[in-house]
Amino acid sequence: MREDFQFRLDRLSDHRTLMALVASDAMRDATTALLTSDVVLASKVIGQETFLNDMLAQGEQVSLDLLAREAPVASDLRRVVSALWIVSNLHRMGILAVHVARTAERRGPDTEVPAEVRTIIEMMGQVAVHLSETAGRLLNGSDVSAAASLESEDDLMDTLHRQLFDALFAADWSHGVAAAIDFALLGRYYERFADQAVAVSRRVVFVITGENIGGDRTAAALDATSAIR
Q1: What is the CATH number of the domain that holds 92?
Q2: pTM of the predicted model, to two decimals?
Q3: Cβ neighbours of residue 68 closer than 8 Å, sequence gap 6 or more
Q4: Are 180 and 57 in contact (CB under 8 A)?
């Protein structure tokens, strides 16, 4: 029974790692589609939404089955419940990449990203992909120290987000209100993608080390639940 439980946990870990890879690839392709006005590539990313939803459902089902059938306690409980949260974070990351792709598709094949924000958007995309890739390594349990770099890169994403708004509200912005709204929303998508990646890293570190680096009170709640059971 214990071996089966461990096997299913390992499969769930592989599932999360795959979700992180899908989110990384989706954001990379969505950003490329936006910067190159490639509506075909944007459509490809959008087409992954059903797959992302299926992956979420599968991850949730396995997590809930483990909770219901195995009644885990202590560290095993933290692993299963954290996995349930993490698949939700990773799904949200993928959907945010889809939102970027939808914006690229809506803008069309002949609409370039304005020079005033092009470099910022390119950098936001690079940071987002790197955050997702780092979160994926954390999910493998191979690089816990990388969590600190995620916090730092999240700060960089916040800085880029502010720079984007500065450009949109500049007196010399000449691309209209509609474009400004598009890029304001895009900035939010990238910023939230980064936040979700950091949430993944914090939960992985908590499972591995027991250290609650994010101030999430659910960690204490899990410990209390384990003590009661």
Answers
A1: 1.20.58.220
A2: 0.87
A3: none
A4: no
